[in-house]
Design goal:
- It is a single chain.
- By secondary structure, the protein is an alpha+beta fold.
- Helices cover about 25% and strands about 20% of the residues.
- It contains two helices and four strands.
- Strands 1-2-3-4 form a four-stranded antiparallel β-sheet.
- A hairpin with an 8-residue loop joins strand 3 and strand 4.
- The two termini are about 15 Å apart.
- About 20% of the residues are buried.
- Mean pLDDT is about 80; it is low at about 1-10.
C-alpha cells in the first residue's frame, strides 16, 4: 500500500508506472493521497464495508477488475488513482495493487 503503519512492507510492491506517476505529483498532492488512503480507504477496506461515497470508487470501464478512486476534488483537476485487488499477502487482509495516480487522464491506460 503506502508508507506508514503496517503497510510499509508493501512499498516494494509499487509498480514502476505508479512510482513514476507519483513523482509527477506535487508534495502536497502526495501528502493528500497518502492521508486519504490511510485515514479513509484503508479503514473502510479493513472494516469490510462499502467505501465512503466521497472516494467515488467505481470500476474502470475499459479495464475489468481495475477500480478508480478520487482522492482530491479541490481546485484544479480531480486527483485519481487506479488499483486492483491481488492475492492476499496476509490471510484475511485484502491486498491492493496500485496501477496509476494523477488526473482523469490516467484512465486512458489504467
Amino acid at each position: 500500500m503506502l508508507p506508514g503503519g503496517d503497510h510499509r512492507a508493501h512499498l516494494r510492491d509499487l509498480p514502476p508506472r505508479f512510482t513514476a506517476d507519483l513523482q509527477h505529483l506535487t508534495p502536497a498532492q502526495r501528502r493528500r493521497f497518502r492521508r486519504v488512503v490511510l485515514d479513509v480507504f484503508v479503514p473502510d477496506l479493513r472494516a469490510g464495508r462499502h467505501f465512503r461515497p466521497g472516494l467515488r470508487i467505481k470500476g474502470v470501464r475499459c479495464a475489468p477488475g481495475v477500480y478508480e478512486l478520487t482522492w482530491s476534488m479541490g481546485t484544479g483537476p480531480a486527483g485519481r488513482a487506479t488499483f486492483e485487488y491481488g492475492t492476499e499477502v496476509r490471510p484475511g487482509t485484502p491486498h491492493v495493487i496500485w496501477h496509476r495516480i494523477g488526473t482523469h487522464q490516467i484512465l486512458t491506460g489504467p
